[in-house]
Amino acid sequence: MRLGLLITLLGLVAALVLGVSSAAGDAGSAVIVLPPDCVALGAGQDCSDAVTPFTVETAGGAALSSVPDAPGTIPWTFAAAANGSIVYSEAVGAQPWSPTGPVWLVRPGAAPLELDSSSHDFDPAISYDGSKVTFARENPATDASDIYTTNADGSGLQLIASGDGVDHLSLPKFSPDGGSIAYACYPAINGLGTGVGCGPTAVGMHFDSGLMLMNSDGSGKRMIVVGELYPFKWLAWSPDGSQLAVTGCLTVTVDDTISCDHDQVFRYRTNGSDLFNVGLAANQITDESGPTYLDGLLYAQFTDEGAQSLS
């Protein structure tokens, strides 16, 4: 299989709400899920009283369907499954930059379903077949967060990874076969727990930050990349599950102050052989000189038809 990367460069608000998924059994025919218009039009839109549908299109731009979000909610980050289901976290407040909140599932021909009512949920994702949902939940006092899964009907809520009060866990994403979840781990801002940090590696070591893998039931946790891309902002699986595309920023420390310049996309193997290659040039896919960290984000998806790009 010839694997490529589709790289998307977007403005800050639009980047936070773009989702891409592939049709089951046909990874080459991409389906693009576009956000509700109120968010896509930019910051300052008040969508709280509108029912604003997600738009589903083919990669060629042909419209497939329209899926309304739950009345009174403001979609923030979201993800789509091959069966047409869409999960999203709800922005709490009238502006798109408000903190995230409850997780909702919407799909064609069905009423919107609130999967979890916590106002501190974020980074929802859905399995490729649409049967399971995962998301992170933050403790706002410490910035520490945990990862949960639930069935797509809202049953079976389960804590599968804990930050132990000291780690911020984010970006959980199901593998294409649904058997594994990749996620990012780094220190919480005001961590107050007694955890030992992110890990373990294959030899039992723990580190401040890195990319993690676990089985979808929470067992078998292991670190596959040590280090942080200030922080990890996007994560995508290759169709065969052998690689991850990750967006983040290489850091520069001056006078004990950490700064971030431009987002880049890196590619890592999931077998752990890139354990210490977090910023290695051989793993870097892009070489962006603009926009800056605050002006735009890079999102990446694997394809089986070679590398493509959008801007």
Helix segment tally: 2
CATH superfamily: TolB, C-terminal domain
Q: What is the number of domains?
A: 1
Radius of gyration: 18 Å
- Named CATH architecture: 6 Propeller
* Share of residues in helices: under 10%
> CATH topology, what is it called?
Neuraminidase
Number of β-strand runs:
22
Biggest sheet statistics = 4 strands, antiparallel
What letter string, H or E per element, gives the SSE order?
EHEEHEEEEEEEEEEEEEEEEEEE
Report the top-level CATH class: Mainly Beta
**Order of strands across the main sheet:** 2-3-4-5
Weakly predicted, low-confidence segments: 9-29, 39-45, 306-311
Overall geometry comes to globular
- What is the residue-mean pLDDT, rounded to a whole number? 78
Please give the alpha-carbon distance between the first and last residues.
26 Å
- The chain-level structural class is mainly beta
Structure notes:
- The protein has 311 residues and is mainly beta.
- It has a single domain, classed as Neuraminidase, CATH 2.120.10.
- It has 2 helices and 22 strands.
- The strands form 6 sheets. It has a 4-stranded antiparallel beta sheet, with no helix packed on it.
- The chain starts with a strand and ends with a strand.
- The C terminus is likely disordered.
